[in-house]
Specification:
Elements: H1 2-36, E1 44-50, E2 53-60, E3 63-72, E4 75-82, E5 85-90, E6 93-95, H2 99-116, E7 127-137, E8 140-149, E9 161-167, E10 173-180, E11 186-198, E12 201-210, H3 221-226, E13 231-236, E14 239-245
Length: about 250
Amino acid sequence: MKKFLFLVGLLFLVSSATVAVQDNVQQIVDKTIENAGGTKFDNSSIRFSFRGKEYRSVRSNGKYQLERVVFGDNGMTHDILNNQGLSRSIESCRVKVVDSMVTKISDGVNSVHYFANLPYGLNAPAVNKELVGESKINGSSYYEIKVTFDQEGGGTDYEDQFMYWIHKENFTIDYLAYKYAVDGGGIRFREAYNARVVNGIRFVDYNNYKASNLSTPLSNLDSMFVNDQLKLLSKIELDDIYVYEEHNCC
């Protein structure tokens, strides 16, 4: 009987500790989102340009609309991704998107908006967050938070894995890493820089690094970065950022 009570007590302590850790990671993410703009993400129209393409996002009460405008040989192509799905117009004329391209176009639009609006998306219903440790990068202390996605609601890339390094005092995402499976797979590590606040919302640019070994754990990338063991691939820079107060969406 005593052994049984001991086991019950032990399970209770483990369960309580797990709940406490999960509460803690939620508090960390909540504070990071609040620090980056909080509810302003849900009440603003955000516009920016990235690599010659124009982007706009609007969100309100669970509704969202993500847009991309590209100027090319065929004129202006306007893609809209919202709760109803994907639509495309060329020179203001609605065109049908073939089934084989819907996912590719949708992922391309969503991905740019996802990274541009971080940390906003970290409280989405399909996101699973776990505080896996702490680390030091260039003299600063960070929480290490691992993110995975449920298949239901997690999009076509639900199997991707992310790691975020959140500054323990400033509650900013200064570094992030992710492992993806499409196009043969890959691992990326991003270093945030050029942080600025536009009408209450914080934006950053990134140095984008590559890890050549696909079996490298994401949790090792911070030390590899410090030891110059990652290859710089590109810079992720947002230009012409505008944030407008929005009252109606979609």
